[in-house]
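[Structure tokenization] protein backbone as discrete codes

[Encoding] learned vocabulary of local backbone shapes

[Begin record] amino acids and matching fold tokens:

___
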Amino acid sequence: MTTAGGVLQALQASQGLTERFEVTAIERGSIVPTCAEVCVEDSVNLLLNEIRVASLTMTPDELVPFAYGYLVCEGLVRSVAEVRDVAIEGTDVNVIVDSFKPDDVDLWMEIRSSGCVGVRSSWLDLEEPVRSQLKLDLQTIFSSVSTVNELAGLWRRTGGTHCSAIFDPLGGLVSYAEDIGRHNTIDKAVGKALLDGRDLSECFLVTTGRAPAGMVAKVYRAGMPAMISNTAPLSTGVELARRLNMTLAGFARPPRMYVYSGPERIKEASQ
């Protein structure tokens, strides 16, 4: 009898998301040969009208929603309606956008925390503050954090991925994604939601990754006013969230968390 977990594991292995290696386990003085499942890392090239704009190391799946989400989250397009077609050939993802001009993209060779070399992604020009009536119940946030932990099946098996999920104001799951790169999880989750026609202006994002300015900027460009992490923000992320009137919380591990910006959107924090 095959369990649902077994089917998922076999499917992920068949899609090339993991590999098994012979390893040596050392526990309490015992040395035991065993096998371990390890996440696959691949290099994906993102092209706009045949022009490469980024190369990213990532989990090689869900490349279509990734492409849509990346373009929106990095500010290269304003909506998915601008994309005419997406073609995948191996690990090359070519997006056709009628409005794209080669001069619009400033390429540079930079080692980024997202593990990519590509478009210059600056948050210095982001100034328009978020105007949202979103109010989040503290227990809704904690429940959403627990849901993300439950969704991260690949992480539980390998310890090698991050997970991001988008929720509606009541904690209903909108979309989620796992990837070896924390930035990629946001791109994929946003891409899925936008392709599903969801309005993200009253949604919030929960992630397992740290929150530097680059991550906060992605959430902002996707239209969400709040970002919750179960780990630490970085100084640039806090500064940007405060400038943009976003809610940013870190170390969200029930029953505690730190709210670095926008506490008024969290009911118990503002009362």
Q: What stands out?
A: The longest helix spans residues 138-151. The radius of gyration is 19 Å.
